Amino acid sequence: MISNIGIIVTWISFVNLIFLLFSKSNLQIHKLVRLNLFIHFILFCLLEIGLFIDDFSISYIANYSASTTPPIYKFASLWGSLDGSILLWNFVLSIYFLVYIKYFHKKELLVGIKIFSSILIFFVGYTIFSSSPFAGCIELSSIGCANSSLLPFENLLSSEYGRGPNPLLQNHPLMAIHPPILYAGYIGLVMPFVISTSHLIMKKNNNEWVEMAEKATFFPWIFLTAGISLGAAWSYEVLGWGGYWAWDPVENVSFIPWLLATAFLHSAKTQIRESTLINWNYSLSCLMFLSTIFGTFITRSGVLISVHAFSNGNIGTYLLIGLSIFTAFYLLVGSKNTQYFLTAKKLNNWFGRSGFFIANNIVLFSATIVVFVGTVYPIFYETLYDRQLTIGRSFYDTLVGPLLLILLLLIVFSEKLPNKNLNLSEWIKGNQKEINISLVISIAMSLYYEASYKFIFTIFASTVLVIILSKNLLSYIKKGKISGSYWSGQIAHIGIGIFAIGLILNVTQSYSKEVITSPGSTIEFGGKNYSINQPYKESKDEKDVINLPIAKNNKIKNASLNIFKNSSQQAISSPAIFRNIESDTYVTIKVIDEEYFKLIIRKNYGIFIIWLGLAMTTFSIYPRIRNE
Amino acid sequence: MNKLITITLLILLLAIPLINQDKDTRYENWSSNILCPVCQGETIYDSPSEYAEDMRIILREQIDSGLTDDEIYNYWVIRYGERIITNPQRRNLEMIVLPIILISLFILGFMRSTKDE
């Protein structure tokens, strides 16, 4: 039943979008865009209803949900695998369509509507012609569904149980938040793409498009920052991976749009102020969107093996075709505007405000190149030589590390950049006290911790940055007027500085060991004693949990193993974390037996500081909300 | 006066890593770039697992007995394949050269189009 309705409604949405593509009246457009959003909302609800009533005649539900799945994970199963996540994708895209016509669309730029609807048609087309979350099951497998049909009114078969979601995805409620927030970031980047291409096609050659595109980038950028941070938190706090970032290809492709969007937020400001960098801004505004499609292609096409990669038949080809079309479109529109690009003003103050903004762009784009090469190179290598390569942290440490350091040094000056060239000796004189305080702090930290040059440079750059910018911020907060993009920038910069302090502590100081122990015994680690209590088992519908209470002084935390029923995957370990500002003691269970356990116990430095920095960066939304 | 303080502090700061010189760098370099084959993406330096511990002992012996980098490399790659080494850029220099060339080209192009003639 739901399968039939879903398939038919998807078709209706497709037809509606075709109408939208050809409609000319502004009133009609507004109605159709709202209707489109309504239809996608209905589709979203339909699949949710299907999930909640365990309609296993729908292939997607039979394969990625189960009757024993707890409600919150049933809800989240909608985006637990490919077909459903495309449904969420289209829903979010439809929300942004409404945002676009409300805030960024101009009546005379009908072409913007055409571009936006074409993109939506492309993605809705996938659920109609290739693979739909509403496809009914026509052939059962032992559990779940083996084969499905894209046509309505077939004779559907319903399996008795569902397979249930991937255990990784049903271990913590963060699953319900991390993907949609990340999507809100990714998909929002379609707006700057539509804005810049539509303006340039219609030869609206003033800086208005860049101003609009910048606004349309900022909020998705916030979502992207929050989404990536939540992903990091999820893998560290919940999944017991022990780390928050592994330079996994899928993490990399989420980082690329972030880097590009960050670059654009800065270079757009330069164009707004000085009419420079026009072609560069046009490129960035499109590359953000294209890199999102590229990322989806990389992760969903099966060219990579990763924790995040779920592939499904022909989505790879489909996305590759889309990526080629959108890229060709970007190049075509660009090539028609070379005259306009030539009107860009040249720069003469390389050590003034614009110079710093450009340096920022060079650093961020260089980082993008490094991350891109690091992600794509192993694929080429394997195709060429039929051998696998592992690109580990050291590759990124060598190349991204120095770029981050340069970036921190640039940010130090961001508090008050002069229009003309910066006078460095005067600047040092003006900030002598702050510089000296930072030096003292850096020396103290370098003596206390194991210090390498990497460590002291990063610590010094970030403490100067945090001290100078915070002083500036606090003095303004007293006057009670922080609003507007300048203060957003300042808050984000302080966040990055705090983050960098946590990061360098974490990267250089952390250590770990494996211990074999038994109930009632005490382990000594990092100068503290931890006593191991008797483990106990909890049985839930969908999983068994073995909890191991660990006590430090009077604090008791559970390290646990989650063993999911209906799943062949290995158990998921959840950590016990004893946290203070400086470091975490992080205990995960490796093996648990009647008499002995094998535990991994880690000292992870700087985690609290990292979370604080990321939270602060996300909080940079506040001054702009106040302003707009 | 203020300037003098700053310079003194700076020199002090820059001198600290010199005192801290670690003698074990060769071992650290190697162990932090050999993947532990049974752990999820961890190197034997990071991984606390027993398997990694065994590998660390072998590596320690190799370094103490003065094996060359090539000999150590071959030992591990023959047994576990190329993917055991997590810093392939050391041998596949093109991996470092390629991004650097791309970055240089980008900067060059960028400067040419924005610079005042």
Provide the descriptors you would attach to this structure in a database record.
heterodimer, A: 628 residues, alpha+beta, 4 domains, 6-stranded antiparallel sheet, 4-stranded antiparallel sheet, 61% helix, flat, B: 117 residues, mainly alpha, Helicase, Ruva Protein, domain 3, 5 helices, 62% helix, 0% strand
Main β-sheet of chain B: number of strands, strand sense, barrel status? none
Percentage of residues assigned to helices of chain B = 55-70%
CATH superfamily of the largest domain in chain B: Cytochrome C biogenesis protein
Structural class of chain B: mainly alpha
Coarse morphology of chain B:
flat
Total beta strand runs of chain A: 12
Poorly predicted runs of chain A are: none
The best one-word shape of chain A is flat
CATH topology of the largest domain in chain B: Helicase, Ruva Protein, domain 3
Distance between the termini of chain B: 42 Å
Contiguous helical run count of chain B? 5
Number of strands of chain B: 0
Rg estimate of chain A, integer Å? 26 Å
CA-based gyration radius of chain B: 21 Å
CATH architecture descriptor text of the largest domain in chain B: Orthogonal Bundle
